[in-house]
Amino acid sequence: MNVAVIGSGTMGNGIAHVFAQHGFAVALVDVQAPALDRALATIARNLDRQVAKGTLAEADKTATLGRIRPCTTIAEGVADAELVVEAATENVDLKLQIFRELDRHAPAGALLASNTSSISITRIAAATQRPAQVIGMHFMNPVPVMQLVEVIRGYATSDETTARVMDLARQLGKTPTAVNDYPGFVANRILMPMVNEAIISLFEGVAGVAEIDTVMKLGMAHPMGPLQLADFIGLDVCLAILRVLHEGLGNPKYAPCPLLVNMVMAGRLGAKSGEGFYKYTAGSKELVVAPYFAK
């Protein structure tokens, strides 16, 4: 089966990795050639880790990389695709634009999936002439490690499309879970209010960054505290999801904390920018509270 993945960032390269590792031919599409180079290098490093752990043979690593074909245009990347997975930035206008283009260039029978973590699949599907073939396929980060795929049915998504995507997720060694198309779906409808409440607790001076995360790690058995997790997800992504929840559900409990808004405006986006609630230094795994919160 031929698969196209649109977007070569953290999620896109992870999705391409798992499909290629499980025998699928993958076209990885990004308009920026340097981004594709970085993505392929990341996939190679992650495969090297699997080899070092003994979970993947060196020959399988070589075969996996050989199944990934970089492309700089959607038309080229999806020309023979049977499944397209869009993993672009969490921006509704960008996703609608991409799906219009996918609809023009992908074969008539191709399924069009979005890795969106919060944007309405029904709205995305309405930008195409094949809404029955449009579905959400929300992978978790890091994709090669995390078991869950949240499969989101839009209003017009067919039973056949849902069944095929659920089966494909199982072929990747994942556990698919079908949910309906409401803002935030299940994962982020529950997760993001918790993250936002942790930020509000910090904003109101209830406790410091490390203290809030320690309570949740040791008291609630979370592997990572909510503030560290927000850094890992990207504070801009957290803000975008909260705004989708707030607008889509009309409930003030989803309103993003002003501290989160200010941090995103200041470019403090978490691990990817080098600083969020914690400070990140290349080559170091030490968890250090950001200077702004260490006063």
Automatic annotation (TrEMBL):
Domain (3-hydroxyacyl-CoA dehydrogenase C-terminal) ranges = 184-280
Keywords for the protein's UniProt record, in alphabetical order: Oxidoreductase
- Entry EC no(s): 1.1.1.157
Does this UniProt record's set of keywords contain Nucleotidyltransferase? no
Q: Which residues cross the membrane?
A: none
Domain 3-hydroxyacyl-CoA dehydrogenase NAD binding residue range list: 2-181
Under what name is this protein listed? Answer: 3-hydroxybutyryl-CoA dehydrogenase
This protein's source sits in the domain of life called: Bacteria
Concerning its family, UniProt says: Belongs to the 3-hydroxyacyl-CoA dehydrogenase family.
* Matching PANTHER family: 3-HYDROXYACYL-COA DEHYDROGENASE FAMILY PROTEIN, 3-HYDROXYBUTYRYL-COA DEHYDROGENASE
